[in-house]
Amino acid sequence: MDGEGITGTGRGDPLARVTAMAHRAIAALDLPPDGWSMTRLGLHDDDQLVRAVLRLDRAGLPSMVVKAQLRPANPAEFASDVARNAAAYDAFPRSRDLGMPEVLWRDDAGMACATRYIPGLRMSQAMRRTWHGERLTLLTGTGRWLAALHRSGDPGRAPFHPRGAVQQWRQKAEAVRARTERVAARPLFLGLAADLRRRAGQLAADGPFDVPYALPHGDAHLGNFIRGEAGGTWGFDLYPHGWRPVAIDVAKLLTDFTTLFHFPDEISAEHPIPPETLAAFMRGYDLLPMDDPALDLLVRAELLRILSTVPADPARRSHGKTRTLDRLLPILKRLAETSPGRRRR
Ligand SMILES: Nc1ncnc2c1ncn2[C@@H]1O[C@H](COP(=O)(O)OP(=O)(O)O)[C@@H](O)[C@H]1O
Ligand SMILES: [Mg+2]
Prior knowledge:
CATH class of the largest domain: Alpha Beta
Radius of gyration: 21 Å
Largest sheet: 5 strands, antiparallel
Helix content: 40-55%
Shape: globular
Bound molecules: adenosine-5'-diphosphate, magnesium ion
Order of helices and strands: HEEEHEEEEHHEHHEEEEHHHH
Number of helices: 10
Structural class: alpha+beta
Low-confidence stretches: 1-10
Distance between the termini: 60 Å
Strand order of the largest sheet: 1-2-3-6-5
Number of domains: 2
């Protein structure tokens, strides 16, 4: 057991830290100290993020998941993330089909927490292992889960400002054009950013309009969902982002699905999410219409966001970021090729 707190340097070994925190959780939960096996579920260790996740198993007891973070060394922010997950668990309408793991323990100063382990497969894996029709059924279930989360998270309506929603990409594109910032696939980035700006302008021309808002998931990609061993859809790893348009979560989820499971020729500039996929999601998610204009805009912004997470310098790309770029590029090229207002730059 280590008794030291987080010093704020953000350095250190995340696996050593999470192991120490696992023992702390076991003691705090009054569980037997011996006989546990620990398996690594996740590890980030780069300039921005140092964090590790372990599964803890012991015969005769339910398994748990322990997460510990070293960097960013911001205990208040970590505590607020965990508090959001705990509050969402309390509000969520849990059922046989829709679940969320319970937060069992937290050490705010140590930037660590423990949740109940959910046996099953990551949704992205479960979807990869099955055929197209069943994959869409799983997507419908994920839509149902997200609708339940949004309904239980202070739902309402408020104005959507298209230009404000894409402003950060407009600014980034200006910096990229001025070469004060670099991005991977510069011409595609700039083309998509110009298209986004044009679409936001068109949408704003009629003045602001109301859209559904709620407390969002905040990181709704398919790796943050589980297809339960006994069926059912489970979501977790929420990030507090205030009260936001629900379409932000939907855009992230559908973009993740599309870049993972669709060929480029299944999308077009008009339909960045294939209509069949959108329809499957909306069979479960009933808070937005199929042709929601804010959703369309936010999907395009999400593609830019994903691209901007890839380091411009190929030598600085992790294996994961190289794969992200590999799955994104054909889709971005396809969007550019099928765009009616396509211009040479
Ligand atoms: N309660 C849980 N039950 C089962 N698997 C989990 C649970 N929590 C996390 N995992 C697994 O561990 C991975 C990392 O956990 P997550 O909370 O998403 O952390 P990160 O912040 O690293 O994304 C998840 O993608 C999932 O596969
Ligand atoms: Mg996660």
